[in-house]
Structures are given as structure tokens and as C-alpha cells.
Amino acid sequence: MKVSALQQNRYGYKPKLPRILSEKLETIAATGSGATKSVADQEELKALFSNTYGKPVVTFTKGKNPGVKKQLRVGVILSGGQAPGGHNVIAGLYDGIKKGNPDSKLFGFLGGPSGLIEASYAEIKDKRIDEYRNTGGFDIIGSGRTKIETDEQIAASINTAKKMKLDAIVIIGGDDSNTNAALLAEHFLNAGLKTQVIGVPKTIDGDLKNNMIETSFGFDTATKTYAELIGNIERDANSAKKYWHFIKLMGRSASHIALECALQTQPNICLISEEIEAKKMTLRQITDGICSVIAARAENNENFGVILIPEGLVEFVPEMKVLIAELNDLMAVKAEEFNALEDFAAQSRWLHANLSRASAETFATLPEEIAKQFLMDRDPHGNVQVSRIETEKLLISLVSSKLKEMAKAGKYKGKFSSYNHFFGYEGRCAFPSNFDADYCYSLGFTAFMLIASGFTGYLSSVRNLTAPAKEWIAGGVPLTMMMNMEQRHGSKKPVIKKALVELDGKPFKAFAKNRETWAVKTSYLYPGAIQYAGPDEVCNQPTQTLILEKGKSGTGAGRKPAAAKPAAAAASAAAGKKNVTKRVKRAGK
Amino acid sequence: MKVSALQQNRYGYKPKLPRILSEKLETIAATGSGATKSVADQEELKALFSNTYGKPVVTFTKGKNPGVKKQLRVGVILSGGQAPGGHNVIAGLYDGIKKGNPDSKLFGFLGGPSGLIEASYAEIKDKRIDEYRNTGGFDIIGSGRTKIETDEQIAASINTAKKMKLDAIVIIGGDDSNTNAALLAEHFLNAGLKTQVIGVPKTIDGDLKNNMIETSFGFDTATKTYAELIGNIERDANSAKKYWHFIKLMGRSASHIALECALQTQPNICLISEEIEAKKMTLRQITDGICSVIAARAENNENFGVILIPEGLVEFVPEMKVLIAELNDLMAVKAEEFNALEDFAAQSRWLHANLSRASAETFATLPEEIAKQFLMDRDPHGNVQVSRIETEKLLISLVSSKLKEMAKAGKYKGKFSSYNHFFGYEGRCAFPSNFDADYCYSLGFTAFMLIASGFTGYLSSVRNLTAPAKEWIAGGVPLTMMMNMEQRHGSKKPVIKKALVELDGKPFKAFAKNRETWAVKTSYLYPGAIQYAGPDEVCNQPTQTLILEKGKSGTGAGRKPAAAKPAAAAASAAAGKKNVTKRVKRAGK
């Protein structure tokens, strides 16, 4: 296998572990601490998860663990979108298993959860794992988005687990995949199966976190990769001084990625979907806010700038949210009628007749190119694929029109020329940063310890992440503890709560405190490419989000953030009606 | 000034110099070697450049240079698009000047060549230069695209140079800017001015190179940044196994960037404009070639892949070239009539009546969204802005239609889902790689040595670049030596010849030898982010283009390239009629 120089070099990196996990295995004991309850809907969840509900949070500490060396057969699944570090979770799991007992075996299910259903798997051995240590991607066994939900799927999974005589299955995934892991653990126990199920918190989106899970893996590397690109574009904007760059960032509903990138790069504007929803800001208000910043910068002869836009934005803008919901409902019942329409003009007429008046008007204001994106590429449920909508182009179009109006009214004298970008796939498979390499390896090793210690229905948990790795705390959290009941596709289901950006949280507040300055006074930071070697501040820093949430001081170069000065209003602040900072509603409610 | 951790760290990097330039200045002598001539049109150029034509190529070697410590006043200009390392050129120039005489002064012209015309400048001092060492961007003094061409502009420049008592001006720019530098040198001598003019070869596009200039600066960093992203996307494609990514890469006319990125990442397809022109491939043939690769991969159940597309592609496809030329001609004479048209439908009708029949048909086959891009955003001359055309989307649209036809005919059984990307602004202002940091600093220092040694009309030249920096050869090349006469905007002008990809050159041949394998057998390489610290093979490798052109063996990790095996045909090869490998015509002819 021919590999790049960096990949060859990264093979030699030794991921750091929490101190306790470097001890002799039989001296690492799991200590629990009382019953737990779910974040909401306790009675319903207790009934649904009669076997696994209420278990204690556990931490690994010095003690006795005599059974830890037993021979094991473990399966591992990569579920959902790629996140840097997935291979290291498997490497940590593998090394733990083999350290426990060299005759233990690790099997990788191929192509995601469907591998379990279809009993498609391959044993992972030394040679293979060594080719994937500290690398990005999920290509060691592939990933997939199949959900194990139906009775047939669960029965097939039980069948595979039985046939393979699996002691445990590790599911590496986001909130949905870990909800599935919780269900599987419960079903396995109901079926009298010995197979334990352990989850690992993965997602670049950063929306799988709570008191016990400080961050999901991959968020660190992905945001650093996007911040590299944003910084490069900022420097370009500040050199050429003639373009506004509208940059959309992956992240699904939550704006964690956009917020983290803003903290790393100090752009002129960063929209935060959760704030826009809380303030009920319309597209018009968002546009006005952006234009006021552009006009203020033009006054200083700075006809350039950078605007960050979270992928999920349109779902949080009131009138767009309604439009999307109406389109989804309409397509669910009249898809055939719609699909028979000849062209966009016919579709537009049909929508005008079938949408509410307000939504029909909203739809009519969209540029044709964008409007088409609301109608094409619907997902298997017939839903609009929000991630395919070029929000960045929509905003450019609206801003451009508004600036022309302002120019006519003598309120804007600048020149407006723009470029649009969308960053997502660029960061999901980067070589994991040292942080993610260490964190993932530790999560994998901890998953092994949870298995060897007899737990099921747990999420592998490594905490205290702003401290050096040896001070990290390894343990497990019952999956049910993070769950509540939510409406999904017409029925109430147990799910792990998605964490959106909290408007009273420290990361958002740090951003809000500085953004008015950043909007008008060019304050760009250029993080540059992720470094794997060098001094700690260059190659071993966690995200700003984590540092702010955990209370460690310093940003970027470890210096104090620049004090915010009063200045012309930043986009969101300028256009919002109220200064709402209370906690926003969670997604799916 | 708050800066990122990496920026702080890079301040401490000491760029490497050719050994000779570390000697005492008065022991570094310029040795010339006989008269030179331009690459073509010798008589015309000799007449146009009577003062500066025919000077010798010079090299700095051990000797005597007693005048090197004289006090100097030097101006520097950043011209055109950003390229990583521009700040280091200025740092090398600055350090040379100050080493020569601490009382010498360096002035930066603000906002590009217009700074010279308008006498807008600032002195560069220690504090300022130290804030920009080893950083990306051109923000230290800004850049611009003004050309110094008209009599008024030249007179104004002479005036500024006189008023500022400049001993020399250094112009950091691409082929056009250095053509201007040559003209300025000649005009200054004609005007009896002492001000020398030295150029520095800048452009990420890689098209400013020849026997004496091995590479332009910035190409190394930009291609490594794009290759990082392409590699990440390849790994994502290979993990998710469900998307085809169409990636357009900056680079203007030449395909050097696409080719270099292909050598670094081994994608399934990389289109090379120069080959497409040589083979006279139509859009239909290009599409067929891509589809045959997609179908071949689908046979192996690999419904994913990565395709690289050079920015300038459409200009090299015969029917598109004609269409663009006709549109440009039409707009030059009938812009007013066209601009009065109400909407796209009216524009289409008008074009149908005014274009040749062939071009009207070509235009009609374009997807509406793309067709509009041919009509909007024309440059100041009324020309179609080729870089604004989303060629990547055009190809997706054509490929998608063709695959549907093939599926109907039973010739394609796969699933096709795609994403498009355009990388350009992401790489122009990255922190320069160690190579570019060293190379640029050396170019700047060499520019000072040329000034101190009394040369004018020269391009700073640092050669032998695949050897360690201390073995690099520093010197100067007369700008006229690289020039020929070309038709530009209706009249014949002296210009520096643009270097396009040579189809009989080693980089293209290395690609051509392997591409049929890469097309069908997934052979991705993942270069990862640029590293600034670590072992040489990770952080001190020049581009594959340079290594192949200079004959040094090895690629990527320093291993041998995988041997090409016969396989299903690669895109270009599959669809091309003849196996043309002769040298293609140069641009502008």
C-alpha cells in the first residue's frame, strides 16, 4: 500500500491515554455512584428500557478487576457520517482487547449497521489496524446510515450476534446511532443474549454532548480544518480588499461548527441559527443585518469581508421553517401529482395553488436557482434536503438586491462583489488532530474496559478534556440517562437529546461580546493548517468551545481575547428585535 | 496584535538561504556569461528594449563586490493575485538591504502598482516586517491589478521614482506584472533615471516558468493546500462509497495546479486542458470519457469517485472556445443592445439570432444556470469571466444526463450522486510551506543582491530547487530573455511567454502512465495538512512537478510510484481520438 509521507509519519504517533488506562488491566476497576435518570420523560423511558434504565455512571479508578482478561469476541460498527478519529477508536478498542487477552477477536461490520443485520463482517488483525492508526476516514470497514429499528432488523441483529457468539458490539455513532445502541442493548437483554452494547460519541457537528460527554469526537479536527480555510480566505479578503466571501459550514441543525470557527477566526459576521430562531428573525431581517455591516465597512473603504453561515440556517428562519414543513407535508400526500408536473413554471403554479398564502409568497421571493433546490433531491421520506440548499447563494442574492436599494437611497456607497463556499466534506476525513487521535484512542480503550467489566447500554466517556491527557477521566454513562421522548415521523420515540448552541453558554457569550468589534474592525485570526508536531500550543490545543465551556482561560495563541469595544452593530444583533439570551428550545420539539 | 498560535510559532522560523548568500556581502559577486536572446521575435524585442535586451544571465558566486554596502532607497510592489510567500520575499529583500547598510530604506507601495502611480507608500521597518515573517497573504502592503501601461501611468511612475529618489523598485508578480517590470526598466533608462527594476516570479498557477525559472513561488503551498482538501474528500468518498465529487481547481489557463494535485492525490480522473485542446475533444467526448470511468467503477460496485477539473477548461474545448470568442466579439460591439434585453429568455432569442449557428447550438445545450454565467459578470473589456463559470456543475449536468441514457440502454447499472467544489481562495493565502518560505526569502535576498550589483530589467532567480536550500543557485535572468510578441486586445505586444502543461513533459507523462489504473482501481493518496515541523519528507518536500521535471526520483512518501497496469480507459484517453503527445501551442497564439 502506497501512502503519503504524512500518513507514514502518523503511523508512528503514540496516542496518549488517561493515566489510569495505562495501569495493569486487572488493577482498573469500574466504580459506580447511584442510580441515574433520563433528562426527561422518566416514566416512559423507564418502561421502555426496563433492563438498562437507571444504571449508575461509572468511572475507572485503581482497584480490582479480576475478570478483565477473559477471552472476548467483539464486533464494531461505524455508523453515519465520517468524523476524524474513527480509526483510532477502533485501534484503542483493538489494543485494549488484545491487551486483555491476545486470543480475543475483533470483527468489523462492513458498511455500517447493515453489516450487523446482514452478517457482513471481517476480522481485524494487526496488519490491518496498523495501516489505519491515526488516519482519517472510516474506510477501514466503511460506514452506513441504515438504522436498526424494525422488528426484522432487530431479529436479524440478534441472529448475527448469536451466530458470531459476540460478547459485545461497539457502535461508533452520533445521537441517532447511539439511540439505536440503547435499543439494541435492551432488546439483547430481553432476548436473553449475552451480547453487551457500548456506544462511542461521534459527530463533527458537536451536537452530541451533555454534562457527561464534553464533546463528540471529530469536532476538533473538522473545525480546525474549516478554520484553516476560513483563515486563509480572510487573509485573501484582507489582501485583495474587494470580495465578500459567504461561507456555509456543515453541522446539520446545530451551529456549533460555525460558532467554533468564528471563535477561531474572528470573521465579520457569523450567523447562529439558534439565535435567529430565538429572536424569530426573518430572512429580511437577517439580510438587513448583513447589509448594515457591509455598509459600515464600506464607510471605512473596506469593501470586503467574511460571513459564516451554519448549514441548518433555513430551518430556523420562521417563514422558511413553515415553508419547508408545508412542502414536506404536501409531498408526503401529493408527490405523484407534483412529480407529474412538466417544468419549474408548472411546479411554481401548482405550489402557488397548494401552499398557504404566506408560504407561496415566501417561495415566490426565492431566486429560481434556490427555489429549485427546495423541490429537488428530496430524501427517502420526501423531505426537503436542507443540506442541498445553497443558503450562501440565497443570502448573496438577497444582500445584493438590498444593497442596490440602499445605494439608490444614498445609504450605501461601496462596491459589492462576492464569492460563495461550502465546507463540509473537506473536514470529515482529515487526519485526526492530536487531540482527536488521543481522545478517540482513549474512547476505544474505555469501550473495551466497559465490555470487560460487564456493562451494556453505556456510552464510552472520557472527560476533563482541557487537562493533559493523563489527567483525563475514563468511564461510562448509561445511554438512557441522555434520552427523552420526541416526535419523529408521526410517533413519539425515545431519542438522545441533541445539544444545540446555548445562548447563555460561554462560547456563544464570548462570541457575542466580540462580534460587534469584529464586524467593522478587521480582526481576523489565521489559524493555519492543523499541526501534528511542535509545541503544545500549536498542536495540542482543544477547541475554543471546550476551553470556554470548561472554564480554562485563553484563546488562540493562549492569549487573552481582545476586549470588545462598542462599534456599529453586528449582523444578528443589529437586526434582532430583542436581546434574547435565554436557553432556546431543543431540536425536534 | 492578537495572532494565532501557529502564526506566533512561525515568527520563529528562520528561512534557509543558498549557501553563497550567507557569505559576507562584499564577497558575493555577480558573474555573467554572454549575451542572451528572447525566446522568439528577437528583432522586434531588441528594438523595443534597446537598453535592456541581450544582457547576460548572472549567478552569484564567491568574488568581490565592493559597492554592495552603499546606502539604498528601494520600493517594493505586490502585484496581482495573492500567492503564499509574498511576505517572505519582502522579508528577504528587507534583511538584505539592512545587512548591506542599516541606513538603507525599504518602501512598500500600497495596493499594488497603483501605489507607484499615485505615490502611495509606507516605509517598512523592523516591527512591521517582523509581524509578517513566514505568514501568508499580501496584507502587509496590499496588492492590486492595475497595469502600468499607458504613457500617463509611466510618466507618473517616473515621477514617483524621482521624487522618492528610488535606487530600485522590486515588482513581485506573475507574467503580466513582470512584463510591466521589463517595460518600466526600459522606460526608466530612456528617461535617464537611475531607478533599477527587478522582478520576482510569483503565481500559484505555476505558469511562469522556463529553463531559468524552475517554479513560481506560491505554487508549492497552494497545491499542497488543495491536495490536502482533495485527499480528505477522497477519503470521505472511499468511506461513504456513494458520492462522486467534481472538484474545480484554480489556475487560469494552465492545468499545472490540477496536474500537481493529481500527482499528489491519485484521483480517478483529472482533466488536463492542454491535452483536451491538443486532441480537440468536444464536451460530448469529455462527458463520454468520464461516464465510461463511472460505469467501469459501478461494475466493481464502487459508485463513488473524485474528478479534478482545471479552472480554464472551457477555453480549451473547441466549441466552447468558439462560443466564448463569439460572445466576447458580440459584446464588444453590441453590448448596449444586449444589456437592454429584459430577461434570460429574451437574451437567448437574441443570441440565437446573433451567434453563428454552431455556437447558438452549443449555447442552447448548456443548462440554464450555466448559460447565465456566460452572460453575467463580464470583465471590464466585456469578456466572459471564465473563472466564474461553474464548469464543475456543467460537467455534473452533462454526465448525469448521459448516465441516464446509458442506464436506459443497459450500459450502466450504478447509482450516481454528486457534489461539486471549487478550490482557489482557500490556498492563495495559506502560511507558506517551508519550501515557499525558504524560496521566497531567497528570491527577496537575491533581488537585493541584483540591485546592489547594479542590474535592471532582471528577474530574481533561484535554481536547483530539488536540492537542499544551501545548494540552491542564486542569480538573475534578463526579463527580455523570456519574452515574445503576442496579440493582446487587438495589437501585438511584448509579453513573457506563459508556460502551459507540456504533454511531452515528465509530470504529464507520469500522470498519463498511471491514470488508467487510478481511474478504476481506487488508489487515493491522502497528503494531509501542510506540516511546518517534522522530518524532511513530511515538511520539506518540493512539488511532484518540480521533482519530476528536475529528475529526482520518488513521489509522495519518497517511495516508487505504483506501476501502471492496463485497465479500463481513463477519461481523456478513452474519449480522445489520437494519442497526441507533441508539445501544445502556447497560450495567446
Question: How is the topology of this model organized?
Answer:
The structure is a homodimer of 589-residue chains.
Chain A: H1 5-11, E1 28-32, H2 42-48, E2 58-62, E3 73-78, H3 86-100, E4 105-109, H4 114-117, E5 121-124, H5 126-130, H6 151-163, E6 168-173, H7 175-190, E7 196-201, H8 219-240, E8 244-249, H9 256-265, E9 269-270, H10 273-278, H11 283-299, E10 305-310, H12 318-339, H13 344-354, H14 357-365, H15 368-375, H16 391-408, E11 418-423, H17 434-452, E12 458-463, E13 473-478, E14 483-488, E15 491-496, H18 506-520, H19 536-539, H20 544-550, H21 571-575
Parallel strand pairs in A: 3-4, 3-6, 6-7, 7-12, 8-10, 8-11, 9-10
Antiparallel strand pairs in A: 1-2, 2-13, 4-5, 12-13, 14-15
Helix pairs in contact in A: 3-17, 8-9, 9-18, 11-16, 12-14, 13-14
GO molecular function, one term (chains A, B): ATP binding
Subcellular location (chains A, B): Cytoplasm
Enzyme class (chains A, B): transferase
